Amino acid sequence: MVDVLEVIAISFASGLLGALTGLGGASITTPVLVMLGVPVKHAIASGILSVIATSSGTSSAYLRDRVTNVRVAMFLETFAIVGGTLGAVVTVAISPRLVAVAFSGVIASSALAMKLMAGGLRTAPASQDRLSRWLGLEGEYLDPSEGRVVRYRITNALYGGIGMIGAGMVAGMLGIGAGAFKVAIHELVLRMPPKVSTTTSNLIMGMTALAGAGVYLSSGLMVMELAVPLALGTAIGSIAGSRLLLKLRDERVKLIYFAVAAIASALMLYRALFLGE
Amino acid sequence: MDLEAVLGTVMAIGLAASLSLMTVGIALRVLEGGTAELDFSVGTSVVERNFLAFLVDVKESGTLSEALMRLGIAALMLTPYSRAVASLVYFATRRDIKYAAITAVVVGALSVLLT
Question: In A71, A88, A133, A165, which residue has its Cα 20 to 30 A from B38's Cα atom?
Answer without folding.
Answer: A88
